[in-house]
């Protein structure tokens, strides 16, 4: 097996609807095409196009959401995405998704998330650990039930992946809609929801619209990660850093002042190399901020962002960083291992992941 695949990895920045297999998207598009709901050849062309600007990427997401936003499909894509990450030895996955309403399908944000949980439970070829921290009682009911957790014995002898969920606020949403997502996240904490993400088209929406919901989430103990500096917006970048999120994603359009602030705060950065290059938020890898952050020892974690949309994988991102920046396998292994420090799950999971990396360190050559 390829070394990069064999190495245990931690994925902290993966959007559910960006991580769908092309084959599944094509199948869904064909079905809707047959029912006359989309024009299949147009959709096929969009799905198979792999170089997209940032603006085109968000149009692509709107199309994906047309194909996927019903309960059954949300369950299916969740199951497949987890299987795909597990197959390449991702041992801990923080999967993020935007809870959605789709009135025509009887879907609200809560039922969308129930469909996601159903997808977690549907995975059978690998053991999925979705249980949150021991101080949450998994029998306490909120209308959504936990199954694959420590309340039941596991002992299956199968490969294991820890999955935790982040609920995303889309930058198109209102303050009220953002607050609804945070309240849902709080209601689902015993089911593996550990935090909140702010994402969506970075040229849409104002930071102050989301701030009340993000502040409330933080007060309630949810951990926050923000898409920060995907486009040049110095005022917003400073406001986001002042908010002190637990992590940020991207950090592509930072100036000297913003780098200095980020580094003094030691905020971990989720780095998505292929995504940044494909969307042209960074023009080439030799000027990517990965190199500076890595050499200065700043906390970073390599992630995919949207493995489906950008045709990448976590193994691929590690291999790419190694070859582009001349970093040896042993150091890349250490980089993967360091990511355990930045996960939103608690100490028990961190300790268990340390053991996974200890074991791999002995066996990987
Ligand atoms: C900002 C992004 C993103 O939530 O429907 N998303 N937001 N920047 C990016 N970089 C390219 N990639 C994905 O997954 C898709 C949604 O995630 C956000 C967008 O809001 C997109 O609609 P979910 O599962």
TrEMBL record:
Catalytic reactions of this protein: N(6)-methyl-AMP + H2O + H(+) = IMP + methylamine
Coiled coil: none
CDD domains registered for this protein in UniProt: ADA_AMPD (cd00443)
Matches recorded under InterPro entries: A_deaminase_dom (IPR001365), Ado/ade_deaminase (IPR006330), Metal_Hydrolase (IPR032466)
Keywords noted in UniProt: Hydrolase, Metal-binding, Nucleotide metabolism, Zinc
Cofactors, names only: Zn(2+)
Family classification: Belongs to the metallo-dependent hydrolases superfamily. Adenosine and AMP deaminases family.
Protein name per UniProt: Adenosine deaminase-like protein
């Amino acid at each position: 097996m390829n070394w990069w695949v064999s190495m245990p990895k931690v994925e902290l920045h993966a959007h559910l609807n960006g991580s769908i297999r092309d084959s599944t998207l094509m199948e869904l598009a064909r079905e809707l095409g047959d029912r006359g709901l989309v024009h299949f050849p147009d959709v096929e062309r969009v799905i198979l196009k792999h170089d997209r600007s940032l603006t085109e990427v968000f149009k692509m997401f709107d199309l994906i959401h047309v194909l996927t936003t019903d309960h059954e499909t949300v369950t299916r894509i969740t199951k497949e995405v987890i299987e795909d990450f597990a197959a390449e030895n991702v041992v801990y996955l923080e999967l993020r998704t935007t809870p959605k309403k789709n009135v025509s399908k009887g879907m609200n944000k809560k039922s969308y998330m129930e469909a996601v949980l159903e997808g977690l439970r549907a995975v059978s070829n690998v053991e999925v650990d979705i249980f949150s921290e021991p101080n949450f009682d998994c029998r306490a009911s909120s209308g959504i039930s936990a199954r694959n957790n420590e309340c039941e014995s596991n002992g299956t002898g199968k490969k294991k992946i820890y999955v935790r969920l982040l609920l995303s606020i889309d930058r198109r949403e209102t303050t009220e809609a953002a607050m609804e997502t945070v309240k849902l996240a709080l209601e689902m904490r015993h089911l593996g929801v550990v935090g909140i993400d702010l994402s969506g088209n970075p040229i849409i929406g104002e930071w102050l619209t989301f701030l009340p919901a993000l502040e409330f989430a933080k007060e309630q103990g949810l951990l926050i990660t923000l898409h920060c500096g995907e486009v040049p917006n110095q005022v917003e970048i400073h406001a986001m850093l002042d908010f002190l999120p637990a992590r940020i994603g991207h950090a592509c359009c930072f100036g000297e002042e913003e780098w200095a602030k980020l580094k003094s705060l030691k905020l971990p950065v989720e780095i998505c190399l292929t995504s940044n290059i494909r969307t042209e938020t960074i023009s080439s890898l030799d000027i990517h901020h990965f190199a500076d952050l890595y050499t200065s020892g700043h906390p970073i974690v390599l992630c995919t962002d949207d493995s489906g949309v950008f045709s990448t994988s976590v193994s691929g991102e590690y291999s790419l960083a190694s070859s582009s920046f001349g970093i040896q396998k042993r150091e890349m292994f250490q980089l993967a291992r360091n990511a355990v420090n930045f996960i939103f799950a608690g100490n028990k999971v961190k300790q268990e992941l340390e053991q996974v990396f200890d074991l791999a360190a002995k066996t990987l050559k």
